[in-house]
Each structure stands twice: as C-alpha cells, then as structure tokens.
Amino acid sequence: MAFEYAPAPESRAVVDLRESYGLFIDGSFVDSKDGEPFKTINPATEEVLAEVVAASSADVDRAVAAARRAFETSWGRLPGRERAKYLYRLARIIQERARELAVLESLDNGKPIRESRDVDVPLVAAHFFYYAGWADKLKYAGFGPDPRPLGVAAQVIPWNFPLLMLAWKIAPALATGNTVVLKPAETTPLTALVFAEICQQAELPPGTVNIVTGAGDTGRLLVEHEGVDKVAFTGSTEVGRAIARSVAGSRKKVTLELGGKAANIVFDDAPIDQAVEGIVNGIFFNQGHVCCAGSRLLVQESVTDELMASLKRRMAQLRVGDPLDKNTDIGAINSAAQLARIRELSDAGSAEGAEAWSPPCELPDRGFWFAPTVFTGVSQAHRIAREEIFGPVLSVLTFRTPAEAVEKANNTPYGLSAGVWTDKGSRILAIADKLRAGVVWANTFNKFDPTSPFGGYKESGYGREGGRHGLEGYLA
Amino acid sequence: MPESVRLSVRKTYKLFIGGAFPRSESGRSYPVRSAAGDFLANAALASRKDVRDAVRAARSAFGGWAKATAYNRGQILYRIAEMLEGRRDQFVGYDIEPSTVDAAIDRWVWYAGWADKIATVYGGANPVAGPYFNLSAPEPTGVVGIVAPADPLLGLVSVLAPAIVTGNTAVVLASEQNPLPAITLAEVLATSDLPGGVVNLLTGRAAETAPWLASHLDVNAIDLTGVSDPELAVSLEEAAAENLKRVLRPGPADWTAEPGIERMTTLLETKTVWHPKGV
Amino acid sequence: MTATVPPLAEVASSASTLRAFLHGLPGVDQVGADQRAAMLGTRSIKTTSKQWALDLAIRMVDLTTLEGADTPGKVRALCAKARRPDPTDATCPPAAAVCVYPSMVATAADALRGTGIHVASVATAFPSGQAPLDVKLADTRAAVKAGADEIDMVINRGAFLSGRYLEVYEEIVAVKEACGDAHLKVILETGELATYDNVRRASWLGMLAGGDFIKTSTGKVQPAATLPVTLVMLEAVRDFKAATGVAVGVKPAGGIRTAKDAIKYLVTVNETAGEEWLSPDRFRFGASTLLNDLLMQRAKMATGRYWGPDYVTLD
Asked: Does the annotation mark A257 as catalytic?
C-alpha cells in the first residue's frame, strides 16, 4: 500500500510583488535614467514575476557616490555601538518577514520552500545578528587596536543563494563601518529589492546600502568603478579571474569566492546510512547549485557496491517538483542557460564512457528541470570529474588507500570544500590536515554557520566569509 | 465634592527565584526610602534559606542554559535589551539619569553580541609539537554568586550580563539601598524567554546573605564587586576558598567605561582537548 | 560493514562470532541520524494523504494498559474502545491489538473473541526482565495458554550492556519457542541502551534470534520511543530483509501522544523501510492516549471543526 503525499503548497499570498522595480539608491527606490528593463521569471513555471532594470553607467555612478557620501558623513561616522543596533534591527525585521522572504526566494530562484524556509532565511537573519555583535568589538578581533573600514564596497553576488549571499556580503561590510553597492544576479533580483525595503524599515541612513540590478555589464561597471575601495565577488572562477585582472595595480582590496569540485570521501568504516544522507545532501541540496557541493564521490573500493545500492535506493525517494510544495526535495534549475550547461556536461559524461543513472521521476512540462543523476565508472580525466557542473549530477570515483583518496581529492585546480566519512577520529583529523580545501566536513556536509569561516584554496578564490576571519576583508 | 484623584495600584517587590516571584520564606521585609528619606516600598528581606533555594534553582537551570547554542543565548540576551528599552521610563522613574538608563541598555546589547564570539576570541587551536589536533575552548564555570554594586542599574547590568552570556547561571544579591530597579530588571528577565533559574535575584542585606553564598559548596564563583566593607570582603574571599571558587574582588569601577572581557573570562573554564592525527 | 556478510546461520555459533558480527555492523552517527529524523519530521502531510495516514495509524495502535491497578473492568472497557474507537462514527477502523499483563489476558481474549483484534501480552518479568530464565519462560507460556496471540518480551539489558550477547540471544530463542504459534515482539528498551550503535546491535540480535517484531521500549523508562531510534531500527529491518529475505516488524512504544507524531513515524517508515512496512502486520504503535488524538484529528478532517476531549471517550 503506497503512502502518497498529497500536494502541500505554501501559499504565495504572503508575497506582495510589484509589477516593476527600480534601483535602490541613497535610501530610495529610483528609476534608472537609461538602463534597459528586463524580466525576472519563476524557473519552475516560466511565468514572469516582475520587471527590473539593468543599471547603466550613470546609475552605477550615482550609487557609488551615494555610498561615498554615506561613508563620509553618516554611516562612516557612527560609533560601532550604533552600527550594531542598526544591524540588529535588520536581523529582527528579516525574522519578522521570514515567511515572505522564503516564498519569494523560492519563486525567483526555484529552490524548494523547505530549504529557503529552514536553511536560507534563518541563516540570513543569523548572519546579521552575528556581525551586529562585532560592530563594537573590532579591537578584539585580532586585527589591531583600532581597525578602520575601507570605504565603499562593490559587491556582486550569484543566483544560487540570493539573499544568503547578500547577507554574507552586507553584514560584515556594514559591521566594520563600510558602505555598499550590491548587484544581485540577473535571474534573482527580488529578495535583494525586498531587503532594500527592509533597510528603509530599519531607517538605515540613506546611501549605506545601495542595490543596483543588472547583468554582467552592470557588474563590470561596478567592480571597475574608480570610486570603489573594495570588491567582493561570489560567482564563477572565470569571472573571478577577470575581476582579479581588472583590479590589478589599483588600491582595491578583493575577496573572491568562486567555483569548486569538492571530493566527498567515504571510507570502508563510514557510518553508511548517514554517509548516504551526506552524499545526497552534498550534491542534491539546492539542486546542486552550490559552489561547495560534494560533486565527486570518492568511495573506498571495498564498499562501493554496498554504498551505491544504498545511494540509489535513497535517490529514488527524492521528490522533484513544485518548489512551493513543502514536500519537494529538488526544485527547478535556475535558468535555461544553466540547464543547457548541465545537459552539455551530462552528455559529455555519457560520451566519455561513464554510466548515468537517475531514479524515475516525472518532470513538469514547463520550467527548467533535471533529474538527480549519478555517474559511475568516472575517471579523473573525464570532464564530469574536472569541470564544475553546478547541477544535481554526482560523479563517482573509487580509491584503495587513504593516500590515494587525498591525492585524487586534491588533484584539481579548485579547493573550496571536501567531505570525509569514517568512524575513526584520528583518520578524520589526519585527512583533514592533508586536504587542500578551505572547508572540511567530517561525517556531515553542507553545514554553514555565521561563526564559521568559509572560503577556498587555489582557484576557488581567496578570503573568508563568516567568523572573525570574515571581518578581515573589510578592514584596512 | 472635590473631583477624586485616581489611586494608583502600587507594585509589590518580591524576590526572583526559579523564574517566579516568591516572598522571602522568612516573611520579612524592609522599607526602601528615596534619597530624600521618603518611603518608596517594602522590599523582601532575603534569608539564608532563600539563598539556598536560589542556588538550587540556579544549579537546576545550569545544564540547559550551558547547553543552549551561543546563538540562542545571544538572541535571548538581545530580547532582554528589547524589554529593557520598553521599560526605559520605569527605570528613569527610579531617579536614574536617562543617559544612564540608555547606557545600561546599550551595555546589555554589547554583552549579547559576545555570546557567539567569546569562544573565537578566548579559545583556539594550539600548534603543539606533535601529530595532534589540539583545541582550547571556553566553558561556563557553573553557578555564580554576585554581590551587586551600589549603582542600581548600569552597575547591576555590568556584573550580571557577563556572567550569564557565556552560559553561567547567577544568584544576585541586589543593592540594599536601591533594590527596586533590580526587581524591575527581574521582571524584564521574566518576560524575555530567559529560562527560569538562570538569574535569581534576592533583595535584602548583603552582609547577612553574602556569607551564605560565599560559603556554599555548590556555587562555583563569587563576584564581590558590591562589597564595600573591606573586612567583610576578606572574610567572604576566605569562605570562598573552601571549594576554590573563582573570585572577582571588589574594586573601584567606572561603569561608564567600556568593559574589557575579564568579567567573562574569569567565569570561564578553558578545556583543551588533544586528539591524534593519523590514518 | 564488509561487502560480504558471513552466512547468518553461523553468526550465533559462539559468543565470539556473535560479538564480532555485531561489532562489525556499520556505526551510526548520532547527529546524522537525529538530523535525518528531524528532516523526515518536516514532511507536510495534508488532505487525502492525512486522512489515509490517520486511518492507517488507528489500525496500527496496540491499545495498551500496563498498570498495577488494572482490573477486568478496565480491560473490558479498553477492549470495547479497541473495537469501536469512535462511538459516533462506524467508519472508524478498529485498533490492531490490546496489550495487557498476563493476568489480564483471559479477560481480553474473552472480550475480543471473533473481532480479529489481537491480544498482546507483555511477558518475561516485564518491564525489568530481572528474573531467572525459567520464571520468564513460565510467564510466557501462561500468557499464551490464557489466549495471547502476541507476546512482547524484554531483552536482558544487563547481559547486553556487559557484552554477554550470546546469553541475550539464547534467551530470545527460548522465549520464541515458548510462544508456540504466538508472534514475538522483542523489546530492546532503547532508553537503557543509550547509544544508537547499541540500538543497531540489539535490533540485529532480536532479529537473528527469530523475533517477529522489534520494539523500542516498555514505556516505563524515559526516554521511550523517539523518532531517531525508530529510524535506526527501521534501517536495521530493511537491511535484515536484504540479507535474509525475512521482513521483521517494528513497534515504537511510549511517548507517542499526538496524531502529528504518529504521522511523522509513518513518513519515516515510508522513506526508510518502505511500503511493505505500512501495514499493521509490520508496524504498530504502543500507545494509550494517542488513539484519542488520532480520533480528534480524524473527526476534524471529516467535520472541519477542532474537537475537544469531551467528545472522545476516556476509558
């Protein structure tokens, strides 16, 4: 007898969408003078959600000037104690509007409501709370007796965790006394624009936070702007490289959080059921649109068959569908472009000789969807073992000894994260020591906390976000 | 017939133990007077049995409070600041300067922000000379007895917040002359999601009750800040030595200055764990 | 766990092989198990699926009274409730069984004759199990003779915690034999086992020894049933079936008070052991107050109104 879960949709009524949004500059929503409008859609249905505008060079100038003014005359003059209280207000209002933000995030991004409600939005509030508390304690942070802010920060964020990436950027920047101009990703601008409303509700001094929507061009204008003292970017390694080149020789300090191809290493003595959960969470959480996703499963050869059987059985329980249904595990792919890229790499996987498996699932007709997929028989040379797919696709490789696992795990230009599954504590610590990755998860995966520094080695970027270390990039 | 003036409903000032407001088990009270000598209220006069009950409540609450996440404790302390702000006028009504009340609220907010940071600042990984993972992490010491200073709000906040933000629970002996703000603070705590027993507040004569607190073997630390009599301070410190309580001695205090972290670290134990690193 | 399992028939051939087998089972990461259970608890079961789940849960209830003060009158009232849980609604299904002490079995058997509702009896010096083996076996035989269809035994926790696994095993085998045709539930008393690793080992012990069901608790010790513990046991029965082809049932008992909780358990069954376990033959709830909350939720779905305790019977 089958237990069918009836639809359990979260109501959209809590969200009040406007037909169109302008830019948020100097404390108000303003129209762009000459920017091109574009639409943001719901990737699960392809319905248009709202119209936004691509900020032009003149708009970016205005925003940076407003941020500069606020830095020099208002926000930048506040004692830390007062900055703290503003940030606490932001955190509180985010908590108050949590449901609305979660639903909007799922509509604009495609991620399941359970994730935006239980993971994204709570972490957003927590980041603001955490950094609020640093604003008046900077002398204890280990960066000198009187750390100073840098000035105006240009921040460009990706579409995979729109509001959370905004929090990771804005909270430490403001806590340390900087002002910001932030550009959300072109496919996910809406929660940033509601955040702008929240800044108004908190009565944040105008110009402290400025939001300019747009795509790659707007981002470039912002990052290359002369009036900017600091650049913070999360996105692809390709764009990160371009940014690093463009700021060469300037005064701008840069932090970059880029791509990854994390190895999730499972030893023969791993707690198997929890390891399977960790693997599934590692690559299918947020549809695999995660820079630190455990996209390479490195399993000790002696337990491969057993692990794969358990993994496939578990994957068959993943529910793919309407992001607003509370029982959905895997939502929509964020855009047609991303779906095309996932398909291309998946096809390459099969073409190169790896074997694909997906559980049977019914994908909706409209919208962008990809069934969770696992490739076995993958070798290090395959494209699907080297290139970041950024989708729900897992590549499985095997190893015989701990040294071989470490070697394979490190054999990549990336170095953002890694997972280790074993019952033996000393092995966890020895392996963690040798992994060239900025975040190592042992017997768990995809855990984030505002107190815990996050960032990569090598081409996964530099600088850390979260924790005491997260302050450093915003201090002179 | 002259128009009658509305009679106010006066507040009763009781003790604060285990999240509730009982009277002293001794049934005693004492009159509290304003600086000018006017009668303000009868405050409860705590006995040694009240001290005993308060310590028991603090011990009971310790397990849960110490195990709460730092984030959770920070949230609760911030909520306390919200409730304090709401009662700002009440505190001003006790003849406290408005700017001092503001400072007390801001101080509470300052400490709230330490909950999830003290471990980073005061703990850390240690690079030992061997294949070992070595981590030092601070933990709360337990039940803290506090003799509150004469400054009835800012001083009180400055000794209480650092004790509990890190996970300790507290038994506070309020200022004898000026206990009313302390009981109002207790009302703030009672409406702030703070679990019962984390803070217990006794009004009365500290000279009478402090020795019972200082000698109590289930109290782990004692803050003697509010003890103005030097001889009493010495005898309390001697009594505390019986179970090697951590001691904060009395001393001159400028409550307006930004505190350092010593009030928190004195009430923290550092635990260092070693673990080999080997496949 | 190594890829090849030694033939299970030989696992209990000696104390040391049994110990090696049980200690060779994969460990359970406590935090991971807790989080998996918590995630399963976020499933939102509404409308038709909720109605289906509520009816199934009612059909899975082992309505229980295990008090020193039990009398024939009390037991008869409970049996009446098991037959007709909702006096206002004949479409409400009956409970699976009534669970009582051995001294009350005859009364229950009499009251339930011809209804298809089973009589379950605790036995083996329930709840502590601290009695000589022959006393425990006599307890079992008496209950079966009085009419029990099912026996809920307790394992010897003292022996388990001191590592005498073979002793625990052999006791279960002996009780199973004393059961005759009655089916055997093996109570692990997970609250006393303390770790999920122990719960996994004790689950396998109970199954290897021939138990038809493994059961979490006596309900007399806190904590009783929890969602993570039940998850670990469901993983064990799933793995046991894969290794042997035999499907053993699971019964969480004690501490499940609300319909909402019960539905979380059914979700956990569904997504761990699978469909085959969504039946009273493979899953039971050991409960007393749960039934009334199931009835109230069922009535709310039918009438659209929230009910109160005045509208369900207190037996």
From this structure: yes
Q: Which amino acid is at B191?
A: T
The residue type at C22? L
Each residue's pLDDT tens digit, C37-57: 999 999 999 999 999 999 999
Beta-carbon separation of B121 and A142 below 8 A: yes
Answer whether C53 touches A (CB < 8 Å): yes
Contact A81, A161 (CB under 8 A): no
**CA atoms of C60 and C263, how far apart (whole Å):** 12
Split at pLDDT 50, 70, 90, the class of C307 is confident
Kindly report, residue by residue over A242-262, the tens digit of the pLDDT. 999 999 999 999 999 999 999
Instruction: Estimate to the nearest angstrom the gap between the alpha carbon of C307 and the chain centroid.
Output: 28
Residue C215 gets the label, from left (phi > 0), alpha (psi -120 to 50) or beta, of beta
CA distances from C93 to A90, B83, C155 (A): 52, 52, 32
Q: Does A303 contact C at CB distance below 8 Å? A: yes
Q: How many domains does chain C divide into?
A: 1
Q: What percent of the residues of chain B are helix, what percent strand, and what percent coil, each to the nearest 5?
A: 40, 20, 40
Domain region containing C232:
30-304
pLDDT digits (tens, 9 = 90+) for B82-125: 999 999 999 999 999 999 999 999 999 999 999 999 999 999 99
Structure token digits, residue C149: 């269809």
Q: Is the CB of residue A400 less than 8 Å from the CB of residue A304?
A: no
A291 is known as an active-site residue: yes
Cα–Cα distance for residue pair A464/B46, rounded to 1 Å = 52
Residue among A114, A268, A272 minimizing CB distance to C42: A114
- Buried-state track B122-143, b at ≥16 Cβ within 10 A, e below 16: bbeeeeeeeebbeeebbebbbb
Write down the pTM of the prediction.
0.95
> Can you give the CATH number for the domain in which C120 is found?
3.20.20.70
CB atoms within 10 A of CB A235: 23
With the C-alpha atoms ordered A193, A196, A201, A206, is the resulting torsion angle positive or negative? negative
Phi, psi of B195 (to 5 degrees): -60, 145
- Is the peptide bond prior to C127 cis by the omega test (within 30 degrees of 0)? yes
In CATH, what number does A23-258+459-472 get?
3.40.605.10
Predicted-assembly ipTM surpassing the 0.95 threshold: no
Which of the residues C40, C44, C241 would you substitute to probe the A interface, choosing the one with the greatest number of A C-beta atoms within 10 Å? C44
Going by their DSSP bridges, the two strands A253-257 and A209-211 should be labelled as unpaired
Chain A residues closer than 8 Å to B77 by CB: none
For residue A206, what are the CA distances in angstroms to A66, A92, A211?
8, 19, 12
**Has residue C20 been placed in a domain?**
no
| Amino acid at site C171 | E
Considering the domain boundaries, does residue C19 fall inside one? Answer: no
Alpha-helix residue ranges (DSSP H) falling in chain C: 15-24, 30-40, 47-59, 72-83, 105-112, 133-146, 157-161, 165-179, 190-193, 196-208, 227-244, 259-272, 290-303
Q: CATH 3.40.309.10: does it fit domain A263-449? A: yes
Percentage of residues of chain A with pLDDT beyond 70: 100
Query: Would you list the domain boundaries of chain A?
Result: 23-258+459-472, 263-449
Q: pLDDT per residue over B3-30, tens digit each?
A: 789 998 988 999 999 999 999 999 999 9
Q: What percent of chain C has pLDDT over 90?
A: 91
What are the strands, taking DSSP E only, across A230-305?
230-234, 253-257, 263-266, 296-300
Return d(Cα B110, Cα B103) in angstroms, integer: 10
- Residue C149 counted as domain residue: yes
Domain membership of residue C196 (yes or no) is yes
Does residue A346 contact residue A356 with C-beta atoms inside 8 Å? yes
Whether A287 and A111 have beta carbons less than 8 Å apart is answered as yes
Distance between CA atoms of C49 and B218, rounded to whole angstroms?
54
Q: How far is A130 from chain C (nearest CA, A)?
A: 24
What tokens does C296 get? 């109230």
